[in-house]
Amino acid sequence: MATESYGGRRADTGAGYFTVSSPEFAAVVEGWRAAGLAREWTDTFAVRSRDGWSTTTGPVRWAAAGGLRSLVRQLAEGLDVRTGWEVGHVDPGPRVDGVAADAVVLAMPGPQAVRLLDPALAETARAAGAQVWLPSLVATLRYPERTWDFRGAFVNDHPVLATLLDDGSRRGDGSPVLVAHTTAGFAERFDAEAAGAGIDAAVRELLGLPAALRVDVVRWAFARPDGPGAAPFHFGRERIGLAGDAWGSPKVETAWLSGTRLAAAVLGG
Ligand SMILES: Cc1cc2nc3c(=O)[nH]c(=O)nc-3n(C[C@H](O)[C@H](O)[C@H](O)COP(=O)(O)OP(=O)(O)OC[C@H]3O[C@@H](n4cnc5c(N)ncnc54)[C@H](O)[C@@H]3O)c2cc1C
């Protein structure tokens, strides 16, 4: 749930939206909606396949006027959260601020967690290391005017593009800004700096648009787990917890449920 500011305007550069199915997460989302932070965006996406364009209707996709990151910030209100600290190493019997920690939670993609674990933490390393993740590049493209007529589009069987999202309608300010998520195959071949021209050209060709006025690209080395996880979280005898969207189908709701269930297990035992 990442929001970047480009030319003074925010765009969502991580998750494109979120969906809701469990009553527990629905209650959290209702709090965001009541606070004016989140709103129902659309249930209909365009689909581009080899046969041309069609539409598909699915679950309601939710968006946030202030960017999805604003929702995370709201969840953290009132908690003792320290940002800007990079965890470098997790030892057996970890200490936090010099105090022995009862448990540690690594709520991040498994490959990032593995890098932090002391070799003695073999059970946790096995659980985190079993995850395989795929990369993606996310380009934010600004145009002179808004000429497309979809909110989001799934792009099938394309060498560069996987999803296109109308950030102006998503964020509610009507800006002529598209956010393009690339395929893992394209992201494996290009870094963020080299990818902008190729993504711009692919969008231009697909939608018949002029060249974008501005293209900003971020790279996610671990964008999507390759396959759904079987358990909702990991918490073994080493008392190092692993949570996130690899522990179910890869989406925001899964990450929230995974973290919440892990927290209950930590507090319960
Ligand atoms: C391109 C993209 C598109 C997506 N689209 C959708 C979508 O449309 N709908 C949907 O529901 N979901 C989508 N997702 C998935 C969604 O973003 C995730 O499910 C969700 O963000 C997972 O949340 P998390 O808190 O588990 O992990 P993350 O959001 O990955 O958070 C992990 C955090 O750990 C921090 N961290 C990592 N290592 C360290 C360290 N050593 N020290 C300190 N901090 C560290 C990171 O900086 C990060 O803040 C998408 C994801 C991506 C990348």
Summed up, what is this model?
The chain has helices at residues 23-34, 69-76, 110-116, 122-129, 167-171, 184-189, 192-207, 252-268, and strands spanning 3-6, 9-12, 38-49, 52-64, 95-96, 99-100, 104-107, 133-142, 152-155, 161-166, 177-182, 214-225, 234-235, 240-243. By secondary structure, the chain is an alpha+beta fold. The structure holds flavin-adenine dinucleotide.
How are the SSEs placed, and which strands pair?
Blueprint: E1 3-6, E2 9-12, H1 23-34, E3 38-49, E4 52-64, H2 69-76, E5 95-96, E6 99-100, E7 104-107, H3 110-116, H4 122-129, E8 133-142, E9 152-155, E10 161-166, H5 167-171, E11 177-182, H6 184-189, H7 192-207, E12 214-225, E13 234-235, E14 240-243, H8 252-268
Parallel strand pairs: 3-9, 7-14
Antiparallel strand pairs: 1-2, 3-4, 5-6, 8-11, 8-12, 9-10, 10-11, 13-14
Helix pairs in contact: 3-4
Largest sheet, in brief, is: 7 strands, mixed
CATH architecture of the largest domain: Alpha-Beta Complex
Which range does the strand content fall in?
25-35%
Structural class: alpha+beta
Question: What general outline do the C-alpha atoms trace?
Answer: globular
Quick one: CATH class of the largest domain?
A: Alpha Beta
CATH fold description of the largest domain = Polyamine Oxidase, Chain A, domain 2
Tally of helical runs: 8
Mean pLDDT: 96
* Spatial sequence of strands, sheet with the most strands: 4-3-9-10-11-8-12
Beginning-to-end CA distance, first to last residue: 30 Å
The Cα radius of gyration reads 20 Å
Q: Number of domains in the coordinates? A: 2
The level of helicity is 25-40%
Spans where pLDDT lies below 50 across 5 or more residues: none
